[in-house]
From TrEMBL:
Signal peptide location: 1-22
Gene: TMCO3_2
Keywords assigned by UniProt, alphabetized: Membrane, Signal, Transmembrane
Protein name: Transmembrane and coiled-coil domains-containing protein 3
Superkingdom to which the source organism belongs: Eukaryota
Amino acid sequence: MKVLGRSFFWMLFPVLPWATQAVEHEEVAQRVIKLHRGRGAAATQSRQWVRDSCRKLSGLLRQKNAVLNKLKNAIGAVERDVGLSGEEKLFQVHTFEIFQKELNESENSVFQAIYGLQRALQGDYKDVVNMKESSRQRLEALREAAIK
């Protein structure tokens, strides 16, 4: 019986490295599948975030255009109103124009931020001069926005 067990062991001995390799390959395969699924989920979430953000941005732009049209109509109504004095008309029109200007500047700021992000992502991260210039431009844009 002992002889049979030893001979059986010697018969299985050449198969042992193959069995351990199969187990290692299975572990590697499982790890690759897990990583691939993770990437797929991240890519799907990323695409969904981009799609949702684009929808929100386009919705805001439509809403801004609607508000600008209402402001134009309000300016026209103020100018046609005979019950208001010249100074009152001027004040109300000026108020509406300031609001229009603020909306346009806010839109410009959004697109400048997108452009700045795009430049930062395309830039060389190891180039200190480029990073310094980008930081200076962002600070200048923030300073201008704060002043306005």
